Every structure is written in structure tokens, then in C-alpha cells.
Amino acid sequence: MIPAAFDYKRASSAAEAIALVSEYGDDAKFLAGGHSLLPLMKLRLAQPTMLIDIGRITDLSYIRDAGSHIAIGALTRHMDVETSAMLAEHAPLLAHAASHVGDAQVRHRGTIGGSIAHADPASDLPATTLALGATYVVQGPNGTREIAAADFYLGFLESALAADEIITEIRVPKMNGAGWNFQKFNRRAQDWAIVGVAAWRRGSESGVALVNMGSTPILATSVSAAIAQGASVADAAKLASADADPQADNNASVEYRTHLAEVLVRRALDASS
Amino acid sequence: MAQLNGLTARGRPRPTIEGECIVQISVTVNDTTHDSDVEPRTLLVHYVREQLGLTGTNVGCDTSSCGACTLHLNGEAVKSCTVLAVQADGQQVATIESLEVDGVMHPMQTAFMENHGLQCGYCTPGMVMASISLLNENPNPTEEQVRLGLEGNLCRCTGYHNIVKSVLACASAAAVSGSK
């Protein structure tokens, strides 16, 4: 399978990338690691006529301690998130979830910003950053703005990111020793989750997000509200699908996904408590 | 620079596609630098196989699942069916052909041979390149780490048992030779 023909430009800075996309308009797409976009282009589900390669913008690849949060450059690769000592200390849930993305080869190329911009409800990192209450910094022709993860995901592969904006940084609040767990249920090692759960808990505070339980990654606010009111993990987990809208596909029916979400939320919160 | 009267720079006729462009790239493959003209949509695996004639790297699933096309980009295993040749511009690529030196196989190739780590052999180039990348990152993996580390490579013959055995044998052989 070979993508449809396109033109190619390589940007050396975020500003240059934004200037290029403004010049070429709606038919242009940004290329980071390419591990979400290129498969779609090979299937010709996406046929951009211009690819703007942002993969060489090295100053957008970093992991820094920024006080209350860890700042992660959007072009940081999954492998670097997975193996970061700083994230292992301050946001171990994110580092662990990154180790579940695809396989080693995919993690050598794919980037955290690319995964989030793609906004696939079946991907691990959108839901994980949602559970952690992350903020995404985006840059466009009119400067930068911050978007809370909870406000970012609008629909299937659809986000609050404008066509002429790129994500530059992901800000993840430090977990400060909170318990955490990541559940990924799939049939084969490298598959997307049939259902996944990213969860953390510190006493009555918690964050729970669901992978592949709707058209966007889902923040299970009903579960966290029940935990805050003193509900047991088992009772809170019964609300796992209260905020979700699961769809049926070849892997699972709606009923199966709903059942799986409850089981996995219970396991994740038990392990986090 | 478009169509050159309907011919590529290498003279092969090609249908004219509106908007098509050609990009010049310079890629170091197996320590030799190649200056090439490619269409932006050329996949790295097709570039090394068809333009450079290095057919050791196989195309399997063509959907970044099976790992048969695994080669090294800047020393790390990648699936070359999901990398554009233009993304390798200015970078270092190593294929399975780079491993044997003066008739002597790479220790990983020897380990696969000695431990019967292949049957039909189709997955083997990708499996070997992924295994070398794995040991570069984790020189002394457990069996579980080998199995997880090779999750991106499918083998339909061996049931993986002897592949895992080969990688562990290569790791312990390297540990022994390193301790001398």
C-alpha cells in the first residue's frame, strides 16, 4: 500500500510549521512520527496533498521539571516518555502507559504530541493524560494558548486543535505519590485496547479515564465523584460506563465493553488504593 | 522539479500525476551515503529494496503490525513500511545486509542459527534487527523482557520459543565475552 501523491516540506521550527500550514491551507497535514498518519494515508483514508514534516523540530523534544508539573515537549517519543527517570518519579502512570503503546518499533518513532493531536479514543496516551488532568499548550498564527485535556477531545479523531495549530507541550501535574494503575485489555500484544483504564487515587481524590469507551477518551467523573463521597471501589466501579458511550466493533459488543469497563476500573482502583 | 518530460531522473517513464514532486535525499545506508531522488510518498522499505537493491528487508503485512520490514534508523529498530524515505534524509540506516562482516555473521545471526531460531525465514531479517535493537537498550533481558521487546515482530512458524532462546543466548554470550 502506497499513499496518494503529496508534496513535502520540512519545518525547522514551530513558527515555520505554522507559517507553512497557513500557506497551504486545509489540504496540508503535520507529520510528526507518522505512526498514526502514515497508516491512514497508506489505506488512503487520509489524502493530504501537502505534508509538513515537524519531526526534526528537536527543541520540542524534552521532559522538564516545571515545579508543580512536568513539561513534556510534544515531539518527545513514546520510548523517551517510557524510560524517563523524571516521569518515573513524578508521573509514573504516564511513563507506564507509554510502554503499552504499540511495540518497541512504534515507540521509537511515535510522539506524545502526535498521539494526542490524532485524538484516537482507542489510544493510550490521550486517556492517560486526561486522567492526570494534563494541559496541552498549542501554538498557532496568533500565539499560544492552553487547552485542558478535559476540553480537548470533541469527537472521533476530532479535537479543539485548529488546522493551523500544533501542540507544543504537554503539562502533567505531578502525582505526588498517588497510587496508580493502568489496565489494557486486548487480544494480541500490540493491539489497541478493547477497553483500557488509566487511574490514580490519593485518598478521596482520584482520576479515572477510559480508553475505547466512546468516540473520545472518557473521563469517568461519576466514578471519581463516588470515591470522593466515600463509596467502595466495587460500588464506584459500577458507574464506570456512566459517562461513556461505548460502540460495538469486531472485538466487542456494547454489553461486553460495558462489563469490561466495570471490571477494569475496579481492578485499577483496587491497585491504586 | 516535477516531471522531467514524464521521466524520472533515472529515465523510467512514469504517469504524470498532478501535484507530484520529487525530493532529493541523502541517506547513509550500511555506511554508504546515497544521494537519491524520491517521491515524498516513497516508503523507506521500498527505497532500500527497489532503489538501492537491498532486498534482505522484507515486506510482510505492510500495516506496521508484523515487523518483517524492521531495520535500524539511527541505531534503533523501526518499521520501514511506516517511515517515509524523506524522513530518513540525512540519517543513518542499517539493514540486515550490514551485519555480516568479511564472511563472519553477527553474533545475533549466529545465535539464531545455533538455536534454530527460524524456520521459513521470512520474519528473520526483521526479527534479528529488532533483537539487536532490544539488546542495545537492555543488554541482559529476562525471558519476559525479550518476549515483550519482540511483540512487534510476528513469526508464524516457530511459536517464538527458539527465537526467544536465540536472543537470550546472544545476550549471555555477549555478557561472557564482555567479562573476559
Tertiary shape of chain B: globular
* CATH class label of the largest domain in chain B: Alpha Beta
Number of helices of chain A: 12
The name CATH uses for the topology of the largest domain in chain A is Uridine Diphospho-n-acetylenolpyruvylglucosamine Reductase, domain 3
Assigned CATH architecture of the largest domain in chain B: Roll
CATH topology of the largest domain in chain B: Ubiquitin-like (UB roll)
- Give, in spatial order, the strands making up the sheet with the most strands of chain B: 2-1-5-3-4
Biggest sheet record of chain A: 5 strands, antiparallel
Please provide the count of β strands of chain A.
14
Notable characteristics:
heterodimer; A: 273 residues; alpha+beta; Uridine Diphospho-n-acetylenolpyruvylglucosamine Reductase, domain 2; Uridine Diphospho-n-acetylenolpyruvylglucosamine Reductase, domain 3; Enolase-like, domain 1; 3 domains; five-stranded antiparallel β-sheet; 12 helices; B: 180 residues; Ubiquitin-like (UB roll); DNA polymerase, domain 1; 2 domains; five-stranded mixed β-sheet; 5 helices; 5 strands; 14% strand; globular; disordered N terminus
